[in-house]
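INFO  loader      accepted 1 record
INFO  loader      residues=66
INFO  predictor   begin
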Amino acid sequence: MQLGMGVSVGVATFDACPPSDLLICADIALYEAKAAGRNTFRIYEAANPIKGLGSGLQEPRIPLSN
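INFO  predictor   done
INFO  writer      dumping tokens
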């Protein structure tokens, strides 16, 4: 029997979000990563808003491989 695991990660930094909203920003990035597919991540950036979310998300620079 084989067992596989996938990881989706959402990242937010203090320079993109106020400390009181940091977890919310990371959560938004996490849900975007999950929507994009398996084994990926998204970085929250306030400078790049995405329509409909009112948030900024950066595409990952390094794709994760299986």
